[in-house]
Design goal:
Length: 173
């Protein structure tokens, strides 16, 4: 099962990159410019801290499907899937392909908000609070992508958040 997940994710990542190259989209695969990104990184870390605090004070039930999915893997496999590959796939699609496509057509507001809403919808197994917190985090990740010019920072921050969630034993993103 683990190998199938890795292969499926790898194929999806390859398809995203190939499509982006065919349409000459800027995937943001470059070293980040840190200067303009710092305020948004601080905002994201503050938001994540608030979300973690709210989730700690008012825990929600663990989604049964997510729990079953997690139980079939070792901790190392979960780190590979949920901390490395999952965020890479989501960030390449949301903050690379969608962001780049929307930026040139509709401008920065739509390029940041559109992928954030899409990203939240990908997580419909969670409750309304979690989806809202994901959408807000998506806006901040989009601003980090825009200000840094790179998808590497959003990917790293997304991966770090998933690691915190995994280590805390929470089922929410």
């Amino acid at each position: 099962m683990f190998a199938a997940e890795v292969i499926r994710t790898g194929v999806l990542i390859a398809l995203i990159v190939i499509c982006a190259l065919c349409f000459k989209l800027d995937l943001g695969l470059r070293a980040p410019k840190w200067r303009g990104a710092w305020p948004w990184i601080a905002a994201l870390l503050t938001w994540d801290g608030l979300v973690f605090t709210v989730d700690t004070l008012h825990p929600t039930e663990i989604d049964e499907d997510m729990l079953q999915w997690m139980k079939q893997y070792t901790t190392l496999q979960l780190v590979i899937l949920a901390v490395l590959l999952g965020p890479l796939l989501e960030e390449l699609f949301c903050r690379s392909v969608l962001f780049s496509s929307l930026l040139h057509t509709w401008g920065i507001k739509v390029a940041v908000i559109g992928p954030s809403v899409f990203w939240a919808v990908l997580h419909t197994t969670y409750d309304a609070w979690a989806m809202f917190s994901i959408a807000v985090a998506g806006v901040l990740l989009g601003l980090i992508r825009w200000k840094s010019g790179s998808v590497y920072l959003p990917w790293a921050l997304h991966a770090a958040w998933n690691l915190v969630v995994l280590l805390s034993g929470s089922s929410e993103p």
